[in-house]
Write a structure and sequence with these properties.
Layout lengths: L12 H9 L3 H23 L2 H21 L5 H21 L6 H8 L3 H19 L3 H12 L4 H8 L3 H26 L1
Helix pairs in contact: 1-2, 2-3, 2-4, 3-4, 6-9, 7-8, 7-9, 8-9
């Protein structure tokens, strides 16, 4: 019967990383004991939310064995700090791009008020028509980035553009959407 030996808790970070790569799960526990509280501090600094910071730390440690197999880590402490910071920035970026729905709109649509639901549907239809009014590249970038929640990199890969071109098309597309929607509002006023 195969028995795994326990990893020495006094081992260096680098030794624990090597042990974890070799499948010694006890190394993950030792790294947790050493760094969970520090990474929670990083999460709190960026996210300003205890629960979200805790969740991000747990997700990082859950992914750690796979990450360490993909990356050659010479100095664990600065590497894991950078990974945590990047995860926090990703959480903030995703929250920034979440569509904010005005509270009064939520209250209106939660009631059985048919007029409010109809107004909401008309607004969505106007937005859809405005998106259709964009050129092909802007429309594709807007749909991938804002509606399908793709990153700049993912949008670039799917469109064959580079990241800077994607940013430019998104910026121009949003500007053109504002113009189209403003013109439509002026025509209906």
């Amino acid at each position: 019967m195969f028995l795994r030996r326990k990893v020495d808790p006094s081992a260096s970070d680098e030794q624990l990383v090597l042990a974890l790569r070799d499948g010694h799960q006890s190394a993950l526990g030792h790294l947790w004991d050493r760094y969970a509280h520090l990474l929670l501090g990083v999460g709190m600094k960026y996210l300003k939310d205890t629960e979200q910071a805790r969740d991000t730390v747990v997700e990082l440690f859950a992914a750690l064995p796979d990450l360490l197999k993909k990356h050659d880590v010479e100095r664990f402490r600065p590497w894991v700090h950078t990974v945590m910071r990047n995860r926090c920035l990703l959480v903030l970026r995703n929250a920034k791009h979440a569509v904010a729905v005005p509270q009064e709109l939520l209250q209106e649509t939660s009631t059985d008020d048919a007029d409010a639901a109809l107004l909401h549907e008309r607004t969505l239809q106007q937005l859809e028509r405005a998106i259709e009014g964009l050129n092909d590249v802007q429309r594709t970038c807007i749909r991938l980035f804002h509606l399908e929640r793709q990153s700049y990199q993912e949008t670039a890969q799917r469109t064959g553009l580079n990241v800077e071109q994607v940013r430019s098309h998104l910026q121009n597309g949003r500007r053109n959407l504002r113009i189209i929607l403003t013109q439509h509002a002026d025509q209906n006023a």
